[in-house]
What we know:
Elements: E1 6-17, E2 20-31, E3 34-39, H1 46-54, E4 61-66, E5 69-70, H2 76-81, E6 84-87, H3 99-110, H4 125-137, H5 153-166, E7 171-175, H6 183-196, E8 201-205, H7 209-215, E9 218-223, E10 226-231, H8 233-238, H9 240-247
Parallel strand pairs: 3-8, 3-9, 6-7, 7-8
Antiparallel strand pairs: 1-2, 1-4, 4-5, 9-10
Amino acid sequence: MKPSEVLLRGSHITRRWGGLVAVNDVSIELTRGTVHAVIGTNGAGKSTLINMLSGEIPASSGSVHLMGEDVTQWTQARRARAGLGRSYQRNTIYPTFTVYENCRLAAQAQSQKPWLWWQSANACPVTQAAAHDAACRAGLEHMLDRQANMLSHGQKRQLEIAMCLATQPQVLLLDEPLAGMGAEETDRMLKLLDTLRAEHAILLVEHDMDAVFRIADVITVMVNGVKIASGDAAFIRQSPEVRNAYLGEGH
């Protein structure tokens, strides 16, 4: 696949709650081989943007296309089955299950076979292979039998990525995957995202600006629900509007 292949496109999407406009006429493109970071202060509309792209909440106006198909009216579950994976700000793992079981459940949700009601779900070779591969790709190959609540914070975030990968997505929407991490865990997560870059289009919402400048190919800056700038790290660093609105003089 060409690195410039657009996998997810949001066009002029807006979200209103009564008189409050949380996201206002924002357009964004995610391409395979690219990490596209979205930054902004709390309340800028970043998570609302992800929620509209993923289908968790509907857009008030505008459209969303996934791999060239208009999915604006699709549910979150249907978008997920079509190749869109996402993680949340807070851990959404099954704490009493093992790493492998968490990944298997995610894979099972993607590859549902209700007509095989007589077959044990954990015996399906397709979901078994998807779960094992996802855990290994996320760097958890030595922790398959470890209970999820015994993982470190950074490893739990890796597990969330693994659960996304188990659904075999083309697009990854990651909402603050580095939150609460120390330097070593951050390095490990950035290396993981770098390995995933080639085969996926990645949207990264993040507050860690040093990490964003290290990993992102494209950075979009939002303020009060509006996109004020978008470009590479050098462009964003030099933008007077971005410095005034968000970065400050230290960057």
